[in-house]
Every structure is written in C-alpha cells, then in structure tokens.
Design goal:
mainly alpha, Growth Hormone, Chain: A, about 80% helix, globular
C-alpha cells in the first residue's frame, strides 16, 4: 500500500494541537482560582470536566468511526473543540470554563481514538514504532511550548497595541489577559477544521486484534484481576501526571509566591520539556534493561523529587517539580506495554479499557482539590504518593507473557 506522508504530517500536527490545548490547563490554574474566586475543590472540577470527557466520549467515538469515517469524526471533533474554546473566550466565567473544558476534552478524546490507527495506515505498519515515538516527541514539544505561549501573551497583551494584540485587547476583560489564549485556541481549531476538510484521507482497516470487541468481550476482560490491576495503573499514571502539572503553578504561588504568569508557567513548561527528554533516554535504556526494572529505577527518583518539591525551600521546590516530569517519562509506555503483554488475546478491547483510565486525570484532581480544601494544598498533593506508589509496585508484581527485547538477549539459532 502506498504511504501517505501528507496524512502522517497532518497527524503529527494534530498531536501537537491536542497537547497544546490540553497541557496549558495547569499553568492557568492560578488564573482560574484568582479570577473566578475558587476554592481548591471547585478548581479541581475544571480538570475533572476536561478528563471525564475521555470516559464519556472514547467508546462512543470508536463506534462512530466504524459507522462513518475518520475524516468526518475529526471534523466533528474540531467543531466541538472550537465551540468550547469560543464559549470561554466570549463568556469568561466559571460555568463557561467548566462547559468549555468538557467540550474541548470531548473533541480531544474523539481525536485520540482516531489518530493512532490512522497513523499506522498512513505511515505503514513497518514504520509504526518510529512514527509513534515521533508523535510522542511532538506531543511533548507542544506541552513545553504552550505554557510559554501563555506567558508571552499575558505579559504582552496590555503593552503591545498592534495587529492581533490590538484585537484581543478590545475583546477580553482587562483583568483576564489569559482569556486571549482561548481566542487563540478557537483560531487553531478553525484552521485545523479547514485543513481537514480540504484533505483526502486513506481508508483505515483495523486488524481483528485491534478492533474493539462487543460488550461481552469487555465484561469478560473486566473479570480478570490483571486487567483491573493495569486499568488502575493507567488511572494512577494520568492522575499523577496531571496532579503534578495542574497544581504545580498554584503550589509555587501559594507557598513560595512565584508569579504564575511567568515563573510558574515556565516551571510547567520545563516539566513537559524534561518529560520529553526523559522519554528519549527511556527509549535507549529499554534496549539494555527489562522494562520492569526501568519502571522501578525511574519511579523512585520521581518520588524523591516530588518530596523535594512539596517540602523543600522555594528554590528547591521550583526546580524539583519539573524534574519529576523527567522521571515520569517512561511510566505510561511501560505500564501500557506491560498490560498488553500480560494477556494473550482481545488486545483491542483491552486497550480501550486502558485508555478509559485517562479519567484518573479527572478523579485525582478532584480528590486533591477536596483534600486541599480541608487540609491545605500541600497535604492534598500528598495524595500523589499513593498513585505513584501503586505505579512503583507494578515493577515488582508485573508478569508479562513477553518481556521487552534487549541487546543482551540471546539470538535464536536458525
């Protein structure tokens, strides 16, 4: 089959956009809390609204793709995300923010269901490992860039009076310069919509093992302890990732008085940037050691730097939180691969169950916010020890049917 590298490029752009829209929520947390006068609990409802959309939309999206096609669902996804971004841009209030983040989350969930199978088809199965890694690096790059763009816009919108800044200045509240970011999101979604409408898509045919099975198959899998154990693992990973990245800027502001629009935003940017760098190192280390040992090797330092971030001095805290991102970099791919390697069949349905674990990003934020209300944000963020501790345990109890191949494995003699 002829490879469609235009579609591969489009998918890479889509990965960038998903990450750009998703991972700026953390740097905006102090803005939401200050401008909408929120408690930690109500602030936690914002990422909850975004990530619960994955639980709501993932399975329906896979059903819609089978009934229609990838292009139609991608168009629908960006329309939904556009409406969400425009809603908060036009009506900046707490209720609009909750609805907006839910709609944007729905759009991103729809895209996530589509783009991985599409990438395999457009780029070729023989190139899928490479293109998947490239997509993750682009995803990480966008996560690094988006907080910096936010910082640039809010610090310049009231000082520059030309071009787009002049338009934005006239259409956002003077006390909420960060709303300009949602005008930018709306424009990005609109541009993506136009690009996709003008693009010709290849037909995607899933292998039998990649297809989501009927409800009976899912219920059968959910009776297996190993399936539940790995679902909890993915739940804990996303909860931990978002628990650190979402609350980091607010923590640095509340306990150490760092400016969330500059220092806090930059700290979140480096969290994602270091996660990308750690992912590159992780790929190399997976060639020389068992993935379970690597998971343990990276999780223990992540716990140490989380502790330094929560209990260290201002300077130590500022540098420690981003370093947590470096050591978290290998957790998601290792846990996901260990999970799929631990069952012998129904990988498509199992993958769907695992992806639903993204709702951990919703539930854990709500728990941190609720605990923050009762005991203070520092105590609330200590909940992350539980989720990260569970991921550490996987390195000890995981028993995959097939382990990752290393350069030290003996070659088979033909």
């Amino acid at each position: 089959m002829k490879r469609n590298y235009y579609i591969v490029a489009l998918i890479m752009l889509t990965f960038f956009v998903i990450s750009f829209l998703t991972n700026v929520i953390g740097p905006l947390s102090p803005e939401f809390i200050t401008d909408f006068q929120l408690s930690d609990l109500f602030a936690g409802l914002l990422p909850f609204a975004f990530f619960i959309a994955y639980g709501v939309m993932s399975i329906p999206s896979s059903m819609l793709v089978q009934k229609y096609n990838e292009k139609s669902i991608m168009i629908a996804a960006f329309i939904v995300a556009f409406i969400g971004a425009l809603l908060l841009a036009v009506q900046p209030n707490y209720l609009s923010a909750v609805i907006s983040l839910f709609l944007i989350g729905c759009g991103m969930a729809m895209l996530q269901v589509i783009i991985n199978p599409l990438l395999r088809t457009a780029g070729g199965e023989e190139n899928y490992a490479f293109t998947s890694v490239l997509a993750q690096l682009i995803f990480g790059a966008a996560s690094f860039v988006s907080p910096l763009v936010y910082s640039y816009m809010v610090t310049n919108i009231n000082t520059k009076e030309t071009g787009v800044f002049n338009f934005l200045h006239a259409h956002i509240p003077e006390s909420m310069p960060w709303i300009s970011l949602y005008w930018l999101f709306a424009v990005i979604c609109l541009c993506m919509l136009i690009i996709i409408v003008a693009s010709k898509f290849p037909k995607v045919e899933l292998k039998n093992d990649e297809k989501a099975g009927p409800l009976k198959t899912h219920l059968h899998l959910l009776k297996k302890r190993v399936v539940i154990a790995y679902f909890i693992g993915l739940f804990c990973y996303v909860g931990t990732e978002q628990g650190v990245s979402y609350w980091m800027s607010q923590f640095l502001f509340e306990y150490h008085h760092f400016d969330p629009q500059t220092t806090g935003a930059h700290a979140v940017a480096y969290f994602w940037g270091l996660m990308t760098a750690g992912g590159v190192l992780g790929l190399l280390l997976l060639k020389i050691m068992d993935s379970r040992r690597l998971l343990i090797l990276f999780t223990i330092p992540a716990l140490i730097f989380l502790t330094l971030g929560l209990f260290g001095s201002a300077t130590v805290s500022l540098y420690s939180f981003p370093i947590v991102g470096f050591f978290m970099s290998v957790m998601y791919p290792i846990i996901f691969s260990l999970a799929l390697s631990s069952v012998s069949e129904d990988h498509g349905s199992f993958a769907g169950i695992l992806v639903t674990g993204i709702i951990g990003g919703a539930v854990v934020q709500l728990l941190i916010g609720a605990l923050g209300n009762l005991l203070g944000l520092k105590s609330g963020m200590c909940f992350i020890y539980i989720t990260m501790g569970y991921m550490l345990s996987i390195g000890f109890w995981a028993k995959p049917l097939i382990t990752n191949k290393t350069i030290f494995d003996k070659k088979e003699i033909s």
